[in-house]
Amino acid sequence: MYKHEGITSYWKGIVPPILVETPKRALKFFSFEQYKKLFMFGSPVATPITFTLAGAGAGITEAILVNPFEVVKVALQANKKTGKEVPSTWNMTRQIINRDGFGGKGLNKGLTATIGRNGVFNTIYFSFYHSVKGFYPPFSDPRLEFLRKLGIGFVSGTLASLANIPFDVAKSRIQGPQPIVGSIKYFGTFQAITLVYKEEGFFALYKGTIPKIMRLGPGGAIMLLLYEYVYEYLDKTFPENNSKELGSI
């Protein structure tokens, strides 16, 4: 990429993630808290089943928001033009809408794969973190407690990445350029997974695992820690808005 497209090619498609990242994370945690209330099943405290179902719901909700941005991002990243020839984010969005519309062939192409990717990730991410954190007692030393949460968060992000990467591969194949121009080879989530497995083998479903874990292992830990500490700070600063949920997080 560096030889043929230059150093700036490493940042192709950066604008869509920047635009969607903050609302995406806000929606993830907000919807997780709402789904958690829905799946308490009469229990006074959240259970592992609660965390699992709430995580799945949050992932599905998040995927619906983020998928159009993913389609534009993948199209920009797959474009091998350089310099001023690379279309802007807005121009690429207009090209996709004008050519394929807003539906399953346009801005919402690969939606089920994105739902599978985000749904599986958040199911494991939230359920593992909260269940394991609740199983092991907290440390009285703030530094040790920080490291405890950091470690559990890192493992949560890593396991979730390993579990959902086949859906991520399918999503990339569906949303990215097709091998033969004018012919749609990858069009469905499980159709794409099955085809990759048949033609390239089992390990092809885990292409890109290392960079994904490098991103989402530490990233997942930092995200959960920031959420918890900010939540705790706001809960103490604005006690009249106390939702009494912190103990179950």
Key words describing this protein structure:
249 residues, mainly alpha
Short summary:
By secondary structure, the chain is mainly alpha-helical. The protein contains eight helices and no strands.
Q: Overview of this structure, please?
A:
The protein is built from 8 helices and no strands. The mean pLDDT is 91. With 249 residues, it is mainly alpha-helical. The chain is globular and about 60 Å long. Helix 3 packs across helix 4 and helix 6 packs across helix 8.
Provide a count of the helices. Answer: 8
Radius of gyration: 20 Å
Helix content: 55-70%
Q: Based on the structure, what is the oligomeric state of the protein chains?
A: single chain
Strand pairing plus helix content: what structural class?
Answer: mainly alpha
Low-confidence sequence ranges:
none
Averaged pLDDT: 91
Largest sheet: none
What's the structural blueprint in terms of helices and strands?
Blueprint: H1 2-5, H2 15-38, H3 48-78, H4 89-100, H5 111-135, H6 142-175, H7 189-200, H8 209-237
Helix pairs in contact: 2-3, 3-4, 3-5, 5-6, 6-7, 6-8
